[in-house]
Structure formats: C-alpha cells, structure tokens
# Entry
Amino acid sequence: MRPPSIAAPWRPLWWAVSEIGWVDHTLLDRLDAAPAARVDTPARLLARRLTDAGWVAPNRGRSRPPCTVVVTRAGRDALAAMSSLAPPPNVPAREMVRRALAAVLLAANGRLERPVVVRLAVEMAGAWQVGMRAGDVRKVMTSWHRMRWVQYGSASPGRLLITDTGRGAFNAVARATGERVPRQARPQDWEHDVVVGDLVQRLAASFPAVIGTLHIGLRTQLRDDDGPSGQRWSHPDGLVGLAPEDGPILVALEVERRARPLNLARRLSNYITLAAQRPKRPVRVLVVTRRPSAGRREVVAGAIEEARQHRSHVDVHMALTTPSGAPRQLAEWGIEPATPAFPPD
# Structure
C-alpha cells in the first residue's frame, strides 16, 4: 500500500497553516494562484471545512474589531525625544506611562491593534517593576491622538488560527504523511510573525511558486570548518530554493524588529557559513524590516565586507529591504515570477 499523503487540493492550504500558523482572506485568495492549486476547489471552501471541524477558528468574535494605531511623522520625532530607559522611582506616574507607551510605539515600526499597544505598555512597565493601569495608557494615547502624534486606522484583517483540537489533528496528519509538524510560534513573537506573514503574502503574490516550497523557521545545521570544532544550528525566518536562468540558489529571509546589531551580525555570519558548506547553492539573504535604519545598513554592509575579505570563494549576497520592497530586490537578483521553486534541502 502507498503511504498516505496530503491531497493535491489541500497542499497550498496545508502549507499556509502549518508554516505560517494562520490564514486570512487575502492569503486564501493567493493560495488559489499557486501552480499546484485546483481552481475548482477554492481555498476558502477548504478553510470553511477546517472551521466546521473545529481545527481552525477566527481570532476575534463578532464584536467590533479594534482599530490600529500608527505613529505620525511629527509623533515619531516627539516620541524619539522621550527616554525609553527605566525611569527612576521619583518620576510621576504619567511620565512613566508616557515613556512606556513611547517605547512600544517606536519599537512597533508599523500598525498595531490598540489593545495590543496597551498590553505591551503595561508589560514594559512590569519589566521596570512599576505598576501601571491600562486606563492610564489609554488616556495618554487619546491625548497623543488629539496632538496628532498617533493616528487610528482601520482594523487589521481577521485571521483563522489553529485551535487546540486542530493542533493535535495537524500533528497526527503530519506524522502519518511524513510532513513537518506545524510550527507553533511563541505568544511573545506575535508581532514578529505579523511581519513574516506580510512578507510571505507579498512574495506569494509576485512569485506563486514559493507557495508550498518556502519553509519558515526551518532548523538548519551548520558546520564551520574554519571555526572551532562542533556543530550549531540556524533558524532562518524563511528559506526557499529558486531556480533562475543562472542556476539554482537558496533565498533566506531574515525579519528584523527589535534585534540588537550584534545578534543580527551573528545571524548574517551564519548565512555565510551556510553558503560555504553548500558551494553548489549560492545564497541570497533578504534582511527585511519595516523601518531600515543606518545601524542595520551598517551591519549588513559589514557582513558583506566580511564575506569578501575572509571567504571570497563563497557566493553570498545580502540586501536590506522592507516587506514591500522584497519582490523588487528578488527581481534585481534575476528572479522572475515564473521562476521555479523547490524546497530547501
């Protein structure tokens, strides 16, 4: 008997749910554009079946969805002048709220739902060992809205998330078919996964072949012959094989939100090692952030210079970009919409 496998109409949806951990209506529509998809079985219908079975469920109920918060240009200059360090004990309570809220909004580098902003500000105050009420955070945010430091936008699209029942069912299907067990992101990485999901959706719209072949958080073993003995592991935010006319390459996605420059430099060094141990697979690294900064550009430039000086035989290229600019960068590397894709080995 042939071993069980994922049916062809379900493969794009299985990939999205198991790799990203959620789907929304925009992603479902893009799944139907995948080369392996069957038009007569739309992904929305398959997602409805999973919802009816209790494997996935909406992340919000029928109540009015919360609005999103974004910092204006004038607000960013004003908030940047506020200290994000832990305040001394004699600072007034309102100033503590202002500092915590400013730190959260500046670190977001994009839109966040209003309840999420309030929760993160309270958690930051807790890290400072300072008590803070959610109502006080909302009052400061309202005053900043009147000053046009922040703007309220439309609600973020709803998502279908894996339920506890679905988690066990997906794991059982993965073990039976030999597929990867669905990835389970940590709650504290939710904002990071939002950026990853945004990036994946944009790539799927421009390069449909990545649907089903792009792996997120793939545990990759590294062997550094030039370094100390032993093995270590790398966890790219995304890894996919592409086959342009010049030959097959590996494209790695490194999504940056709050990482320190030293941590980013270490991860970029891992990609140089990955390219060195796979000489037949040139590596292209996309460092993706919602707000490219001079510090991150300097780290990327330093990693490129390191590869040129110490490992000139290694074929690796890196670029700092945004989620919207990622498809353009891939096009500069000779990757076209019709470029075939394959799972990374």
User: Anything to note?
Assistant: The CA atoms of residues 239 and 252 lie 5 Å apart. The chain is about 45% helix and 15% strand.
